[in-house]
Amino acid sequence: MRRKSNQEAAQILYIAPGTVRVHVHAILQKLEVRDRTQAAVLAIPKGLVAEELLAIEP
Hints:
Order of helices and strands: HHH
Number of strands: 0
């Protein structure tokens, strides 16, 4: 699994990259973590990440 950049996420979601940054920042604050990796460590065991996003890319 490869992390998407803010730009890539913005294109997928049809929003501005700045909006992605704002949402990521809010998520990190709510989870009380410092980065996306720590957020993922908390989210994956709780089933908050779609299975297809967990597939390992070649």
